[in-house]
Design brief:
mainly alpha; 4 helices; globular
Length: 104
């Protein structure tokens, strides 16, 4: 997956808002996996993935038709932003331990 930006987090949070909060960790994991797969596809074939885009989290999120962006002070949006950040941190910690175990 390409480097995560704040725009990626915002797009992912907007996707999460379309789902019940109890499903956010699973939805976030799916988004991150889609972004990763799209990046692998882009590197292998030299073009964007037909469904998940260019390998960014934002591209994967936008393929899911996120809700309109609420006001920054919206409590549900703030919770979704926190869940998106937690998902990225979890993804990075898992992948860091995977690569350290293989020596890659």
């Amino acid at each position: 997956m390409r480097e995560v930006t704040f725009g990626d987090i915002r797009a992912a949070a907007r996707v999460l808002l379309g789902w019940p909060s109890g499903t956010w960790p699973e939805v976030m994991h799916s988004l991150l996996l889609e972004a990763h797969c799209a990046d692998c596809y882009r590197k292998r074939w030299g073009r964007v993935h037909p469904r998940f885009g260019n390998g960014t989290l934002m591209s994967a999120a936008l393929s899911r038709h996120p809700v309109a962006e609420p006001a920054p002070s919206n409590p549900a949006y703030l919770a979704a932003l926190a869940a998106a950040i937690a998902g990225v941190l979890d993804w990075k910690s898992r992948n860091r331990s995977d690569t350290s175990a293989t020596g890659a």
